[in-house]
Each structure stands twice: as C-alpha cells, then as structure tokens.
C-alpha cells in the first residue's frame, strides 16, 4: 500500500509539485526582483568605506546619510549621474552555488543544502537606485533620484519537497511565504544650519523634505498552501493574494544632528523616514490565484481533471504604505592622510533591508591627492558580514567614485550577494 503514491504515481507527484512551486515563485519573484526606501544621491563614497557615512558624508552625499552635515559642507557640487545595485539572499554563498550547480545531489548533499536554508525560509532582497541631476550650494541641496526595492521569502518546506519528496502520512505547510516590491521617484529639498557654537565645537541640524512619486507597488497580502500524501492519494491546496497599484504620491521626512569639534572629530545622528506616507490610488488591483488538488491517485490518471485552479482579478481600493524607519549614529576623524569612519544603524522594524538587529559599519579612506582608495567592513542586521572596496578619482572639478560590496560574507566566495555602485559629480 505504501508504495502506491510513492512509486507508481511518481509522475503525478512531480507535476503537482511543479504546480505548487510555480505558485510560490509567482508570489515572491514579482516582488523580490522589481527594479522601498527612497534616498538621495548614490552613496558611493560611503559604500567603499563599509557603508559608514553618518558623519563623514558631505555635499550631496549628506542627503543620503545625514542632512545635518550640510551645515558643514563648503563650496558647491553638481551630481551628474549615479547608480547602485545590491542583490543578496540569506542561504547560498557563491562557493556553495558553484559546488551544487550541475551536479547530482546525494542524500548527504541534500541534507547539507537544507541546513543552509534558515528555518524562516529562503529570502531574496534587491535594491536598485539611480540619481539624476543634483545641486548643492553650501548648506542647501536639491536632488532627484529613482529607487526600486524588492524583498521576498519562500518557506523552507518548498525546498524540502523539491529535494526529498513528500513522504506518506506527512503534510507539508508553505505558510511562511511573502513578498513586496516598489519603484518610485523622489525629489528632495535638503537644508542644514548651525545651531550653536561652544568651546570651538559646533552643533548643526538638518532636514530632508522629499516628494515621492510612486511608479509601481506590489505586496503579497497572503500566500501559503499544504500538500498531504496519504496511503492512496495526494491532496493539495495553494493560494496567493496580492495587492498592486500603478501609481501614487507621498512624502518622506529625514532629520539629523551633527557635531564638529576643534580636534577634527565629527559625530552625526540621523533618523531616516521620521515621517513618511505614500497613497497608492491608480489602477489598484487585488489578485487571487488558487490551486487545489484532490483524489490524485493511480485510478485517476487525469491530473488536469484532479487539479483545479482559478486566477481572479478585482478592482481594489486605494491604500497607504510607509517607508521603514531607522536611526544612524556615526563618527569620523581625520588622522594624517586617512579619514576613519564608523556607524551604528538601528532599524525600528524588520522589513526588507531594515532590521531591528543593529548593524555596525566601519571604513577608512586614504587621501592621496587626486586618488582616494577606500576599504571597509560591516556586520549585523539583515545583511550580515560584508566587506567593501572603493576608489575616488578627482581631476580638477570632476570627481568619479566607484565601490563594490560583498553581502553575507567577508570573502567573495563566502558572500551571499553583491553590491556595485558608481557616481560622477562636479565639486567646486
């Protein structure tokens, strides 16, 4: 009896598994791979220093990390163009991926692969941002940017099903599956001012006022499913419900404080998305996809008749989302030809790349005239350990910055993702 669904109905089980897996991927992939949180100019210099920009950022980069630094930004700058992209997962390193790709997996390999996947499931995060023209004149800045973020999670049981099949008498649950993604443009007005001077130390404050133009947003309202293998049949149920909109408008506010001492020490504290709201009201859709299967057995060989699915789309009501809040405490100092920087980042919710687990970032820049090589490292938060390297080149008024970052590991082979960024500007 036990061998009936496990052997003779193997093709039925395989096809049903593909149905369920496709349902789950539809729930997550649309969100996790969309081209969020809106920021200012591309954060390339700080990326090369491990991401530590809370106290060291000046000019247009102060818009990204702490607008209060504009109070101490001299001269003017024009941001010509910049782009940054980061993609990472929480399970497979580059070495692990290369090891299993194209190979036959025995039971030990499957067990090792399952141990790589956290109990919460396999997550995928993507962050893409681009900056257009930006202008900074002393303590004032005006910038425009576009950003897209996506985050998704697949329940660990999906991989257990694909790798090990579904044993008789066991119900597999796929409830921990979710995803969200958005794309938007932002126009930001930023201002910094010095509040007080005491004993040679100066205290400044700053604010970003951001207009957000929503391009697209989608999130999984609910998703899940079960697959049960009995002695004589297989039963399954899976569903995905999503909300989406093709446009909206909103705002975001960042605030910050910055301190400069006579000895060259700089300290900054900023709150990103202190207030934010985006009203999604154009072409709002609620979509529900449901798949169910019953009485899948040897006597019922017609899988199409045994499996039913429905894909329904409704007009939805407008809805509102907020951007995740986080605080950043940074410090920097200049020691000879070196600039040292370190940040502590604390999120107020677990959402996408924002985490309630604190993240520590540190880096150094070596100022060699027209060349500024940079290195850094970070740990904690949702991204885990990372290492970075960057380079700045300044020829006359023209400046170009580039950076590369590992995600989830200090070495390239251990990393579970990568980030690259480049930007060009004129600094006067």
Q: What is the strand and helix layout of this fold?
A:
Layout: H1 3-8, H2 10-32, H3 44-48, H4 61-65, E1 76-89, H5 94-100, H6 107-116, E2 122-137, E3 140-154, H7 156-164, E4 171-173, E5 178-198, E6 201-229, E7 234-245, E8 248-260, E9 266-280, E10 285-296, H8 303-306, E11 307-315, E12 319-321, E13 326-335, E14 338-347, E15 359-366, E16 371-380, E17 386-395, E18 398-407, E19 417-427
Antiparallel strand pairs: 1-2, 1-19, 2-3, 3-5, 4-6, 5-6, 6-7, 6-8, 7-10, 8-9, 9-12, 9-13, 10-11, 13-14, 14-15, 15-16, 16-17, 17-18, 18-19
Round the mean pLDDT to the nearest integer and report it: 84
Strand line-up of the largest beta sheet: 1-2-3-5-6-8-9-13-14-15-16-17-18-19
General form: globular
Total number of beta strands: 19
Offer a quick outline of the entry.
With 428 residues, the chain is of the alpha+beta class. It has 8 helices and 19 strands. The protein is globular and about 80 Å long.
Could you explain how this protein is built, in words?
The protein is of the alpha+beta class. It has a single domain, classed as Porin (Beta Barrel), CATH 2.40.160. Helix content is 16%, strand content 54%. It has eight helices and 19 strands. The chain has a 14-stranded antiparallel β-barrel. Strand 15 (359-366) and strand 16 (371-380) form a beta hairpin. It is globular, with a radius of gyration of 25 Å. The termini are far apart.
């Amino acid at each position: 009896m036990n061998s009936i669904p496990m052997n003779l109905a193997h093709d039925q089980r395989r096809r049903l598994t593909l149905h369920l897996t496709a349902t789950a991927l539809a729930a997550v992939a649309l969100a996790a791979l969309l081209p969020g949180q809106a920021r200012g100019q591309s954060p390339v210099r700080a990326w090369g220093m491990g991401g530590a920009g809370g106290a060291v950022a000046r000019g247009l980069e102060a818009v990204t990390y702490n607008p209060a630094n504009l109070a101490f930004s001299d001269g003017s700058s024009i941001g010509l163009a910049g782009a940054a992209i980061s993609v990472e997962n929480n399970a497979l390193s580059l070495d692990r991926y290369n090891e299993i790709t194209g190979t036959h997996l025995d039971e030990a390999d499957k067990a090792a692969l399952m141990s790589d996947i956290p109990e919460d499931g396999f997550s995928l995060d993507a962050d893409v941002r681009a900056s257009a023209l930006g202008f900074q004149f002393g303590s004032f800045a005006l910038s425009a940017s576009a950003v897209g973020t996506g985050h998704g999670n697949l329940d660990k049981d999906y991989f257990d099903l694909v790798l090990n099949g579904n044993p008789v008498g066991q119900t597999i649950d796929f409830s921990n599956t979710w995803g969200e993604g958005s794309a938007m443009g932002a126009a930001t007005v930023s201002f910094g001012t010095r509040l007080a001077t005491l004993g040679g130390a100066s205290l400044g404050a700053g604010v970003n006022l951001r207009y957000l133009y929503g391009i697209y947003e989608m999130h999984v309202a609910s998703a899940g499913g079960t697959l049960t293998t009995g002695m004589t049949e297989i039963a399954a149920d899976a569903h995905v419900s999503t909300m989406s909109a093709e446009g909206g408008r909103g705002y975001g506010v960042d605030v910050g404080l910055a301190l400069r001492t006579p000895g060259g020490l700089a300290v900054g504290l900023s709150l990103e998305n202190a207030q934010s709201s985006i009203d999604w009201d154009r072409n709002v859709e609620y979509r529900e996809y449901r798949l169910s299967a019953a009485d899948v057995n040897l006597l019922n060989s017609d899988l199409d008749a045994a499996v039913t699915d429905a894909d329904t789309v409704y007009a939805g009501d407008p809805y509102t989302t907020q951007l995740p809040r986080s605080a950043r405490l940074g410090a920097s100092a200049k020691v000879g030809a070196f600039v040292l920087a370190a940040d502590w980042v604390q999120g107020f919710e677990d959402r996408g790349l924002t985490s309630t687990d604190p993240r520590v970032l540190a880096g150094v820049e070596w100022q060699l005239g027209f060349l500024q090589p940079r290195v850094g490292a970070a740990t904690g938060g949702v991204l885990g350990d990372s290492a970075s390297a960057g380079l700045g080149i300044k020829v006359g008024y023209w400046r170009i910055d580039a950076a590369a970052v590992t995600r989830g590991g200090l070495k390239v082979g251990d990393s579970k993702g990568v980030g690259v960024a480049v930007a060009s500007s004129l600094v006067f």
